[in-house]
Amino acid sequence: MKRAKTSKAWMREHVNDFFVKQARKEGYRSRSAYKLMEIAERDRLLKPGMVVVDLGAAPGGWSQVASEKVGRKGRVIALDLLEMAALPGVFFIQGDFREAEVLAELEICLGDCPVDLVISDMSPNISGINMSDQARSIYLAELALEFSVERLNSGGSFLVKVFQGSGFEQFLLAMRATFKQVLTRKPEASRGRSSEMYLLGLGKREKKLLILDV
């Protein structure tokens, strides 16, 4: 009974949510589109001609925003475990980012194309067990960071959703080791009670080559 009441309360909040109404009015697939809009505008994140990889893309709100900003000369490659209806200017791959064959498909799609920006709004299916949910969330963020290290241009950027809790500080340190600047962002469209936040890494550092004396 308690769960039913909670679900009804969430539904009432969702239906009355300003960003939900705005998304319907302006044709965006999710309220989360406004999270990316705010961050992108504040930090000048999206520019015409950029190549963007959108991880955890469904239902497509972030891909819509990215595609609009990069224009016809840019590219947006989106990936998600769930289905996503086609979007103009967006190439979609359906699959689990944790699986090697799906990652290989993404690599084939990119080819030698340099990546300017990786955006990740990935989140695990919530079980209600905080410790387990947090561990899985950090794991997805780590995979996205690993991909960014390998595929981003030198100087490229990475935006990722994280939740404050166990493993957050260690992940933040890994971000700081990878990017010249790491910023925290809590856009207005993020619900106040949520522990979600976004880390923005700007200016990917060049890989250091290890030279051994032989």
The gist of it:
By secondary structure, the chain is an alpha/beta fold.
Index terms:
single chain; 214 residues; Rossmann fold; 7-stranded mixed β-sheet; 7 helices; 23% strand; disordered C terminus
Structural write-up:
The chain contains seven helices and seven strands, in the order H-H-H-E-H-E-E-H-E-H-E-H-E-E. It is an alpha/beta fold and 214 residues long. It has one domain: Vaccinia Virus protein VP39 (Rossmann fold). It has a seven-stranded mixed sheet, with helices on both faces.
What is the level-2 CATH architecture name?
3-Layer(aba) Sandwich
Q: Give the overall shape.
A: globular
Q: What profile does the largest beta sheet have? A: 7 strands, mixed
Q: How helical, in percent, are the residues?
A: 40-55%
Question: Regarding CATH, which class?
Answer: Alpha Beta
* Helix count, DSSP H or I runs of 4 or more residues: 7
Strand-and-helix sequence, N→C? Answer: HHHEHEEHEHEHEE
The count of β-strands is 7
Task: Spell out the blueprint of helices and strands.
Blueprint: H1 2-16, H2 18-26, H3 33-43, E1 51-55, H4 61-70, E2 75-80, E3 90-94, H5 100-110, E4 115-120, H6 130-151, E5 152-163, H7 168-178, E6 179-185, E7 196-204
Parallel strand pairs: 1-2, 1-4, 2-3, 4-5
Antiparallel strand pairs: 5-7, 6-7
Helix pairs in contact: 3-4, 6-7
